[in-house]
């Protein structure tokens, strides 16, 4: 555990060092290394408390550092762990954004696993079953959103196609998948 933490701190130092050299500073000072380690530990505690998978912690921490580099700048890193201030607020926003994105990705990954795989030999029968269930419980708009999603369209592209907002499409898609999952589960229970 201790060596794993030091490897993460070293990786963060390398990323920050690269950023500093691109801004003209030669080397990060020792106190900055200490601040980076503190920020990294704080992030890990947040990921643990949010019950994110441990294998995503490093990526999440790197995403927070990347956002801080963009919005706050390296010179303000010591203020990130302070009591108040814009830097602290931006740090907490970055943590919250990364946490929510990771949780969403985990949730959508589990949804995708329930959708039949296109490479299976009996895909047409499975998709036919899914489409029948969709016709039974979903609105025409929700069916269209799922169809476009299945064809590989991203949410912003679907929103443009349907002339609505991204938030609306995300909400409709989420509700449609929940309804469809419930219908499929109920059908499977009735058959058993």
Write a brief structural summary.
Helix content is 77%, strand content 0%. It is built from nine helices and no strands. The longest helix has 28 residues, at 86-113.
Which terms summarize this structure?
2 domains; 77% helix; 192 residues; mainly alpha; Arc Repressor Mutant, subunit A; 9 helices
Describe the structure.
With 192 residues, the protein is mainly alpha-helical. It has two domains: 2-111, no CATH class; 118-191, Orthogonal Bundle (Arc Repressor Mutant, subunit A), CATH 1.10.10.10. The chain contains nine helices and no strands. The chain has helices at residues 2-22, 30-49, 57-71, 77-80, 86-113, 123-137, 140-150, 155-162, 166-191. The protein is elongated, with a radius of gyration of 22 Å.
Number-wise, the strands total 0
Largest sheet: none
How far apart are the termini?
A: 47 Å
Enumerate how many helices there are, as a single number.
Answer: 9
Q: Globular, elongated, flat, extended or rod-shaped: what is the shape?
A: elongated
> Helical content, roughly?
over 70%
Low-confidence stretches: 20-26
Number of domains: 2
Rg calculated over all Cα atoms: 22 Å
List SSEs in N-to-C order.
HHHHHHHHH
């Amino acid at each position: 555990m201790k060596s794993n933490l030091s490897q993460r701190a070293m990786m963060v130092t390398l990323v920050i060092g690269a950023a500093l050299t691109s801004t003209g500073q030669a080397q990060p000072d020792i106190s900055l290394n200490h601040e980076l380690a503190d920020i990294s530990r704080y992030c890990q505690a947040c990921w643990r408390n949010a019950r994110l998978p441990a294998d995503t912690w490093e990526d999440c921490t790197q995403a927070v550092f990347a956002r801080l580099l963009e919005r706050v700048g390296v010179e303000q890193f010591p203020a990130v762990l302070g009591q108040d201030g814009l830097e602290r607020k931006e740090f907490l926003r970055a943590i919250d954004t990364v946490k929510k994105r990771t949780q969403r990705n985990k949730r959508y990954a589990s949804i995708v696993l329930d959708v039949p795989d296109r490479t299976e030999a009996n895909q047409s029968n499975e998709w036919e079953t899914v489409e029948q269930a969709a016709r039974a419980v979903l609105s025409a708009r929700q069916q269209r959103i799922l169809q476009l999603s299945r064809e590989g369209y991203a949410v912003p592209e679907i929103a443009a196609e349907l002339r609505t907002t991204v938030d609306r499409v995300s909400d409709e898609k989420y509700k449609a998948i929940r309804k469809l999952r419930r219908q499929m589960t109920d059908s499977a229970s009735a058959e058993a």
